[in-house]
Records
---
Amino acid sequence: MSGDSQRFTRLRLEGVTRRFSGTAALSGVSLTIEQGEFIALLGPSGCGKSTALNCIAGLLPLSEGSIWLDDSRLDTLPPQRRGFGMVFQNYALFPHLSVRRNVAFGLQMRRLPRGEIRQRVDAALRLVRLADQADKLPGQLSGGQQQRVAIARAVVIEPSLVLMDEPLSNLDAKLRLEMRTEIRRLHQSLGLTTIYVTHDQEEALSLADRLVVLRAGRVQQVGGPEDLHTRPANPHVADFMGYRNLLPMVAGPRGGATVLVEGGGLRWHGTPVGDINPGQAVVAAARPEDVRITDPGDPSAVPAAVEVVEYQGREVAIEARCARGTLLHLRADRRYAPGCPVAVTVDPERLLVFPAGAGNGEEP
Amino acid sequence: MAVDRPRRRLTASPAAWLVWGAVALFFVNLAGLIGSVVVSSLGTRWFDSWLPMGYTTRWYSWAWREFGLLDVLVTTLEVSLLVIVISVALGVPASYVLARRSFPGKRALTMVFLLPVLMPPITYGIPLATMLYKVGLAGHTSGVVLANLVPSVPFVILTMTPFIEQIDPTIERAARMCGATTAQVFRGILAPLLLPGILASSILVGVRTVGMFELTFLTAGPDSQTLVVALYYSMSAAGIRAQQSVDAMAVMYTSMMLVLLVVALRFVNPTQLVAQATDDPDR
Amino acid sequence: MAQPAAWRHRMAERGVDWQLLLLGPATICVLGLFVYPFCYGVGLSLQPEGGDVLASYRRFFTDAYERDTIWTTLRLALPAALFNVLASVPIACRMRGRFRGRRALTTLLVIPITLGTVLTAEGLLNYFGPTGWFNRILLSTGIVDTPVRLTNNVTGVMLSLVITGFPFAFLLIGSYLAGIDPALERAAATLGAGGWQRFWRITLPLLAPGLATTFCLTFVLAFSVFPSAVLVGDPAGTTRVISIAAYHAAYEAYDYSLASAIAVIMGVIELIILAAVLGWRSLLYTGSTRGKG
């Protein structure tokens, strides 16, 4: 059951459903993962992403659906016979075993010869740059080092699939960035198929080849980083991808590629996502960085008053309120005094217009 | 923490004085109580006076011979070891499942395991002894061991639960993801991590078994008495034996328990000695 | 092949799989040695040698000598358990936090657990007896003229219950108290609560469930009092507790039906008291005692 003989071309999830005492944590998730891909499962807490990962790992039985590795059914196998590697959020290192014996554990379970175990453990520890810490106990290592041991332990068995459950969320901001680069480097050098669960969209965008956005146990959107970043499929995905301005509005007439939307004292042109008919209730979404302070003479300018100013280094984040009470999040390159009147606008291609209620139904 | 004074000042409130006074009174009387037994066990004759007329150690050798204490001690040891081994072997796996898993009927089963600890031993001891006499097990060491298992197995389950809960379940999952089977997880991961807990719970079961009077009393025959029961008989048959020899025996019993407890305190928090039911209805 | 696998799967989803077999040996042990004998005892109690099904129970309740053992037991066990719990609270509160000699004090408190009934009984008879040190001190300081009678009566048994039960209650309450986040009291202090208010409004409500549990456990100890009631009490009269009645019925009168009936009655009384206390406890807040969610 050693991993290296287990190369596969495709992992398929078919209608995977998991219920906890009646409520579905995961409902009807279907997904195909190609060999060598780095997939991120992304979503707010409680969206079912960890459930999905545990179902794939075999740590949770499915309520419905099936999981296939090429042509063999996987979901009836216990976790120890699936040959996957897993990195846990809290590292889950064996506290009573040295770093070396932690990494060697999986190889010992596979009853490999002693010499080969030693050789592979050394290689794995060099890979995560911990060769000099091999004889320490996990408790003697820093958080970042512990996480690297956990990664070494997962990859040393040369698994056909590596599962990572929010591996960076227990680290501080600086270490998180370093480990992110490390994980990407490992993926590029080993080419291991990886499923990575996170709630941090920035982490997911920077690491993954493809992202799967989950909400309330359902897949909302699957796509590359650029797709998700610039063309979220519905307001929920938009919200999650950093579109902080989500404005309930009403659609007006279409003009070419854009549509006029009105509401809350605003009157802007935006880019429709999906079918939008005049008079329909819509949600207009824009990122704070796409809302600009402009000249009051601009025809699309809306007057607003600055309420809160937060200094963020290169720029300042501003909350401004329009005459009719709508609150807008925007960025500016200089400080404004609270109360200061400004005129704000959004470019039509940067304002996405979704039908209201999109993403709430059965189908994304 | 800076607010906390390193030492309590002597200008404490009257309430504090009252409390410390009560504690001191308790200890003074306790010391008097223990001291009087120790002095009596070492005294020659002690009637209406502050101290005995002379001192001797002959009551100890007398008690040792008269009560056949060597046999009694061997029986006590034998019973305790058997109870420890069996109750750990039965209790630890059950405790693991109860701590980690949820399954239909778990609450009812937990209740069944809790009841023997909550019931006075006499209530189930009498019918149990009657039953054991019927099948011919009572009156022998095996009957005493069986009776003592009733509170011990639940006790192991209860004391092991916090130790098991301390172990992060993701560690077990990690082991399974490394390819370990259930047996391998138990051997390679859980057993070494649970060893301190098993040790603690064994010692506590030992202390309780050595001190368990009622169940042993009800099931023991003449050659399967443990130390407490022998003590009780020697004292309730007072008048026949010299009181000092009973005192000597009691001192020996207490020293033995004290050694056991000092050993136990090296491994466990004192509260675990008494916290029989670590109940948590919210779980 | 697919069918059984799927079935196993469905059961696993409900939390039923082979691992539950680990419960087996312990369950068999408790069922065989506790539940079955208990039921056997109930059956035995309903098969008296003469008379109808309930004859043993009727005999117990109509004979004042037997019936009064319930009252005798409760009169000893309830005050003893209550005293042990209530006396422990102020002492445990005093002993919160770190101070020199704390560990030594805790170790000292463990000693009474090692004494065992017989040494306690011997000690009580020696020390509190009419010619014991305690009475000698009282006499020589002129507090009393004649020795106070403290043994071979209810007081003796009560003293024995306190000596063995108090350390037990104290250690338990101490551990419950240690579990209460001290930051909560500090938070109350910043909001203007004085020492007493902090105790009544913050500490005591959080401690109350622990007190109820401790009461139950000390009560169980005190309720099953048997050796000390014989050795330092007045086993034929004022301290003839229910366990003595049960023992006499079984091993002196050889009336196993009556003995079992008494055992059952004992269990029922015990359960009623526990249910009352735990029922009251369930009305209390029993959640986290930390300051954080």
---
Amino acid sequence: MKRILLILAHPALQKSTANASLLKAAQGLDNVTVHDLYQVYPDSFIDVAREQALLQDHDIIVFQYPFYWYSCPAIVHEWTDLVLEYGFAYGENATALQGKDWLCSVSCGGSFSSYNIDGYNEYPLIQFFLPFRQTAKICGMRFLPPFVLDGIHKRASKDRLQRKSQLYKQLLIGLSEGSYPEAEIHEATFLNQLEEHHIPWDKHARGGHGA
Amino acid sequence: MEHNVLLDAFVYLAATIIAVPVAKRLGFGSVLGYLLAGILIGPFVLNFVGNQSDVMHVAEFGVVMMLFLIGLELNPKLLYRMRLPIMGYGGAQVGLTLLMFMALGLGFGMDWREALSLGMILALSSTAIVLQSLQEKGQLKTIVGRKIFAVLLFQDIAVIPMLAILPLLSTQSGELSNSTSGISQAIQVTAVIAGIVVGGHYVLRHLFRFVAKTGSRELFVASALAVVVGVSLAMTWAGLSPALGAFLAGLVLADCEYRHEIESDIEPFKGLLLGLFFISIGAGINFDLLWFQPVLIAACVCILMLGKLLILYVVGLIFGFSKRHNSYFSVTLAQGGEFAFVLAGAALSYQVIDLALLQLLVLVVTLSMLLTPIALIVYDKFLAPRFTSDIKREADHIDESNPVIIAGFGRFGQIVGRLLHGYDIGTTILEHDASQIETLRKFNYTVFYGEATRLDLLISAGAEDAKLLVVALDDPESTLQVVSLAKRHFPNLQIIARAIDRKHARQLEAAGIDYCIRETFESSVALGVKALELLGYRANQAFRAGQVFKRYDQGLLSESVGQNDEERQRVSRSMDARNWLNALLQDDDLTARVEKEDHAFETEMPVKETGRSARSLLAGHKHNKTSR
């Protein structure tokens, strides 16, 4: 059983439905440690040693946050800047994170269909994860296909959130138990595909995925 | 002149109202003012007051109450820690002084009994005058203040055996009955002290709690007074010093939750009665004696004061006081005390001494008490500066100039200092509380003793070369003085300061300070933030609310600097401010935006700017419309 560190970053979780729903599904799972950055560091003054110790105690690092400005909330950036130190995360003899998994788990307002050349957002969604993918690679981590809860601006029915959260939970359990074959993970653009076999967004999403 | 109580009361009060402010204005303490008022209304000048002994009887309660209040303020642990100074300094002083005056008496051909009682009478100093003076100068809690207090405390305790010995010295017959009553008195003493300690601990605090529940302030005052009076009666019954009993009672109640109420209720009574006490001493001075034998009296006063001074200085040397402490210690305690009157009265009644000696002693002791405030003024003016200049010379030898000067090293300055110390930034500290200084020097801080309001001290602390002056004094007036002094004389020095409140912060900013912060501002906001968190707000939401509040509040403050301080305008402004703040907090930028649409924010989401956002409020609190 792999241990999962769920690093949560939502500056207004009290008003969130999507992230809150995902969080609720993940909370209480065995092997999942929830680490709420905005709650622990309201002043963004991150305790680097503590964070590094947390990383070393876990195998799968999940970053769960809303997809702000095609990226992440500020505290995630602050976190990477400080915690992924030279000598710890990368550089000579830096092996602390070798072989661990990196998973981005985001909620975004726009639907998958808006992320293509004809759509409002012009580029395939997966391309916006490039900085994270490369960061993980430099740290010797495996970048898992991101989990995405899309279209929450227009399609945020309770029912849909419920289904997606359930899916998220299944995926986390599956990852923890190691039940997905390497090839399947390698093949997928988004983590969702491992459990959902009808993929309505596939056409657009895959369009920009080079791998 | 016909005397009645109301008229007497009026005369005493009026004399106080006239004499005390004048004495204070002239730089003498209020003690001297009271004494002068007493002389003024006494039989030898205006002859306004009649029988002194009744008044004196009431007035002695002032001393009792003072000891009660001191007990209240003193923490028993501290007292326990002081047991060595009390026994050591006090014991040495009382013992040596007693022996010296006894020897003197024997030298003048007195009977040994008479000489012994003379020694006892003169060995004690004036708790009332000394403590009042120390308190007025804020020196009660300094190192030397504690030393002085230790001696006074020992003397108060020493009165008990002295009063017990006097009857044994009686030349009359009936010593047998005295010795049997000695046993019963011992029982009485034990019973009373045990009663005060146990009763105070188990009964009095419940009494105060009960009375406090009734919500009647008069009742509370009455109970507090009743406790003091009752304890005094019990002590008198057991033949002990009422002052000591009151001190004990105060000590027992020191950790009672109503301590501060009791304190503030007794305080005015103490003040008035103590004033009355000094006035009575002044009015009771027998100037006839002085008039007819001025040389004898003057010689006696000199012998008394110089003799005590000498012994005190020797005691200081034995215990290794610093020169500065020792001289202050000796000057302060070199007088006869009010217990001399009590002891002399008892000695007379047991016919150990005769009336002539009693009158002489009372006059001499009174004059020495009268001279003490004057001696202290002389000391402050002429002797004390010599010791400070010693320190200055010392500093010149050190010849290091630190980039930072911190004025005031109490709770506030310490934190600033420790932070800088952690980065090995050299700091020079100006501190007027002597008790801090020795500790600080141990940790290699450069410390100057004295008030930062003095230009020479600032200069010798290196203000001309320093980069930064941190004013962390607790007195708002002194802070302003230091700031304007430093602004005037050291234009290149950056100055930051601790402000007491809004008004003070405004004054400081108007004085051109580089930065100031209200001393409780950050911490109270922090506590508010914590409160929000505990009420269920997310930590970062609460944090941001605190930040918004701080920025906004600071903004209001600096906006109001230089503004005409008309009350109405300020009131209307603060009303406005309240509504504003309300809008501001609800509108806190990021939170509000996410709140409204409840989504991750990204381009597809129409960002509705409903109302004014916090940022526009903050940026434009001069009513301009920005950020649309």
